[in-house]
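Data follows
____________
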Amino acid sequence: MATTALAAYSEVTASDASLRRFLHGLPGVDQVGAEARAAGLGTRSIKTTSKAWALDLAIRMVDLTTLEGQDTPGKVRALANKALRPDPADPTCPSVAAVCVYGDLVGEVKAIVGDEVNVAAVATAFPSGRASMDVKLADTRDAVANGADEIDMVIDRGAFLAGRYLQVFEEIVATREACRRPDGSHAHLKVIFETGELQTYDNVRRASWLAMLAGTDFIKTSTGKVQPAATLPVTLVMLEAVRDFREATGVQVGVKPAGGIRTAKDAIKYLVMVNEVVGDDWLDPDWFRFGASTLLNDLLMQRTKMTTGRYSGPDYFTLD
């Protein structure tokens, strides 16, 4: 597919007709083939030494997340401390990649983690994405001003499904500009598709290319508020898209499955898929993340089992 994409990419312009022609010219996704390949990769096992490495890598890839209306400063500060030292009894346990919270709580997390762990904030009328652009951009700027290192924006799925691709494209471009700091640097931008509402794998592929053409740093499956959230077949389609985009443009974009990934076994399935589909370059927290609230504890339990030979009780680690 990459050769076809390379030829078509050079003709894309930021116009409605050009985007529509390009996105609908992408090869369709073989649903049966994608699901069969994802299922096959999900059966792969890894050896003990590789599993220990994979568990630590998965911990380093976690965006430890709380996005509830009942979130308090105390709750997110406790989460921030856990992000820094997931297992206080084991100083060799790595920190997570980021803590993801609402924008008004960014400062609470930043006060704990400093520059040791990234702070991500959801913005742009999360989780619906239904608000005026002024509101969405103000939401983003506030989070960046509060110290957010990363912004997780949501696309307007209604606009996308109605075929208003230029509107979605321009919102991503504008949000990326709103991520600019006074020194000229940018908070990293992750674009959330809410794949459970996109209906087809073809739409997932189109949304992936649209976001990458608009300049996102990461593409992300879900808000965690809609089911189904992250799935292996959807992530496969997105990984194929970032692989083909890099071949076409030379630009590497990250992938973040989020929602419903709860066990170390699940996380390892995703890591196997990353290795098989896009390779070692993406086996790094800079290029692959897990959006999760409960995954970390299972990773820690499995890690403890490998180092001590016994499982910790379910209440050994803090509940988030």
